[in-house]
Amino acid sequence: MNRSPLSPVTAEHVEAYRRDGVVLLRNVLDAEWIARMQAAIAEVMARPEAYGVLGPSHGAMTSVCYMWRKPGAFRDFVFDSPIAEVTGQVIGADTIRMYHDHLFVKPPKSPKIMQWHCDETAWPVLGEMAPNIWTAFSPVNAGNGRIEYVAGFHRHCVERGLRFGFKPDQASGLCPNFEEHRNDPQFPFRFVSFDMEPGDAVVFHPHTPHFSKGNDSPTLARIGLAVRLFGDDVRWHDPGYKAYIPGVTEMPEGQPVDGELLPVLWRRQVSAAA
């Protein structure tokens, strides 16, 4: 099983992430990783409560978090696969820490819609280096509910200090409903999405809005494993409505995140000539 990506992270990938807040990486994993994780995912689908914390979308789809905290395939995946390395290279971090993993299995004909949102709404931190790397473990396409993103909107948020809440009176209010702009020729941002194959991954910025419709396919589940990671600039910030991190006690406001439940997965190697 590969520890480094099968295809290198290029300057074009880095620039796409900087510009759009989202980038597709092909062939991150080899066939052994894909097979091992597909088998592990099947076990979670059969007994989700035994493997982690049920996510808020669990029901019409399988939604399970924090599987990495138990010995086995999911823990090996975050420590030994290339995902931390490729994420660090894409976002320009020197250090990548684990935050949490989240399995999404949207079965055939599932009506479950994930409304437009930004991940930063839930994370109890500040900082741009808190991305999501979403790895496909099934084919992903328009029919079975691929994720859509609003490219470039992350810069709009960062430059204006916008942070969305779960309610209108939290932070800058609710994330906009971008469906209202889908056919607007004057909308200054682009809607982007990607067909994916098992082993492909998308890295996206915590301020990048994203959405997925239901699964219209009669036969093909949409299976993805999201791993949320922390880089160099991430600092603790919890205004009271953020997602709870099991086992992590309150940290001083503005403190760099650390601790055994937020372990370092990857550090950039410094050349001897540096």
User: Can you tell me the CATH topology?
Assistant: Jelly Rolls
Amino-to-carboxy terminus distance: 31 Å
* Total domain units: 1
Radius of gyration: 18 Å
The computed structural class is alpha+beta
Beta content comes to: 15-25%
How large is the count of helical segments? 5
Low-confidence region ranges: none
CATH superfamily: q2cbj1_9rhob like domain
Could you report the average pLDDT, rounded to the nearest whole number? 96
Could you spell the SSE succession in H and E letters? HEHEEHHEEEEEHEEEEEE
Q: Which architecture per CATH? A: Sandwich
Task: Summarize the main sheet.
Answer: 8 strands, antiparallel
What is the total tally of β strands? 14
The rough form would be described as: globular
CATH class: Mainly Beta
Helix content: 10-25%
Labels describing this entry:
single chain; 274 residues; alpha+beta; Jelly Rolls; eight-stranded antiparallel beta sheet; 5 helices; 14 strands
What can you see in these coordinates?
- With 274 residues, the chain is an alpha+beta fold.
- It has a single domain, classed as Jelly Rolls (Sandwich).
- The protein is 19% helix and 23% strand.
- The strands form 3 sheets. Strands 1, 2, 3, 4, 7, 10, 12 and 14 form an 8-stranded antiparallel β-sheet that branches. The protein has a 4-stranded antiparallel β-sheet with strand order 5-11-8-9, with no helix packed on it. Strands 6-13 form a two-stranded antiparallel sheet.
- The radius of gyration is 18 Å and the shape is globular.
- The relative contact order is 0.22.
- The mean pLDDT is 96.
